[in-house]
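Backbone-to-sequence.
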């Protein structure tokens, strides 16, 4: 396994890029530590596949370098990078048994049959497919086929990185959670550097210790699932992660204080990155309290959705929509209410970027 470093990377599919808009990857500096479980998360078109193809060697970046353990591999073809990839659709040989499918990447590299047996047995046990080893792959269900495909990616001990590209796309929704948690468990046992590419926040947050969030060819935040939830560095991350995402409300900053519809809103701490002028307040629905009698911002309820464990309330205040998540009894549509924001979770954003610090010290 290896540390993978992307240094000053840019990529344009155009032969004569004029400006930033012509770059699928704008400027990426990123280190994937040896043995880490990473997710690369972002909406369609943000550049995830481009980045993956640069790591695997299918694409040579327009600018910058790819380093595996400090060795420059930017110009090396895929076959010389020693990478395992698991794709959206299972890549297995239908006519072979499960055992032979799992053995294939090892035999292909001339491993002796004793090693093949040891690795195949271990991986089959981890994936809970031992009873299927003599079954022909053609007879497997789609999720078992994808499991074997994953096993083929994990069976070699000498790869630099295992990359998963939306591996659960073809899996039935009710089986997805099983494979998701299986993958996490596999990482803990195999300890390989793994990069999991997805546009699905649940998959990313379940699998990864560190999530790299991309938007429009740039990395907007790298952090643990908790970091991304608690302290989004950009309003995009706040929106993209969470259900519903973070509320982003227009505000005016005057003398270090934030005003929403003319009302002063207490922020987590000092404003660190914005002068006077228009900015945005970010507050997650989990930290908005709704009350019929309390203090706070006057609002009215537009909708209440019961989503099982809790209710999602949609309120309108100063012409802005604000979501709140509530347990227990919720008001009804049309009710007049007041909203309070948990101060320590109320952040300021300027031009999309976090511009407030917690009380008692910047983070
Ligand atoms: N071969 C190509 N030629 C020209 N432009 C491309 C090519 N491949 C991708 N792009 C463009 O580069 C940008 C990034 O695309 P990319 O496929 O890397 O995003 P993605 O995040 O992987 O999206 P998806 O999840 O839909 O695969 C997009 O604007 C896309 O249109």
């Amino acid at each position: 396994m290896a540390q993978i470093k992307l240094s000053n990377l840019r990529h344009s599919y155009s032969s004569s890029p004029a400006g930033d808009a012509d770059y699928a990857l704008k400027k990426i500096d990123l280190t994937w530590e040896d043995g880490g479980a990473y997710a690369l998360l972002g909406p369609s078109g943000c550049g995830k596949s481009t980045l993956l193809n640069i790591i695997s060697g299918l694409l040579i970046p327009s600018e910058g370098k790819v380093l595996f353990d400090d060795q420059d591999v930017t110009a090396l073809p895929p076959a010389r990078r020693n990478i395992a990839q698991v794709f959206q659709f299972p890549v297995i040989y239908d006519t072979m048994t499960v055992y032979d499918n799992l053995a294939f990447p090892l035999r292909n590299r001339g491993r002796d049959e004793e090693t093949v047996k040891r690795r195949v047995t271990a991986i089959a046990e981890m994936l809970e497919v031992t009873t299927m080893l003599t079954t022909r792959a053609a007879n497997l269900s789609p999720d078992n086929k994808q499991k074997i495909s994953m096993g083929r990616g994990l069976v070699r001990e000498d790869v630099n990185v295992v990359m998963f590209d939306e591996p659960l796309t073809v899996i039935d929704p009710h089986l997805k959670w099983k494979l998701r948690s299986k993958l996490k468990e596999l990482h803990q046992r195999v300890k390989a550097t793994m990069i999991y590419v997805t546009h699905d926040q649940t998959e990313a947050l379940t699998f990864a210790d560190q999530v790299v969030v991309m938007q429009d060819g740039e990395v907007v935040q790298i952090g643990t699932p908790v970091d991304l939830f608690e302290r989004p560095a950009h309003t995009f991350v706040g929106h993209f992660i969470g259900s519903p995402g973070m509320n982003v409300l227009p505000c005016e900053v005057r003398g270090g204080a934030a005003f929403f519809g003319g009302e002063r809103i207490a922020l987590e701490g000092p404003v660190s990155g914005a002068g006077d002028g228009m900015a945005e307040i970010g507050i997650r629905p989990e930290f908005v309290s709704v009350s019929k009698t309390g203090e706070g911002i006057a609002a009215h309820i537009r909708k209440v959705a019961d989503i099982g464990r809790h209710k999602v309330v949609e309120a309108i205040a100063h012409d802005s929509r604000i979501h709140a998540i509530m347990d227990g009894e919720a008001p009804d549509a049309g009710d007049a209410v007041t909203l309070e924001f948990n101060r320590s979770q109320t952040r300021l954003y300027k031009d999309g970027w976090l511009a407030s610090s917690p009380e008692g010290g910047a983070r």
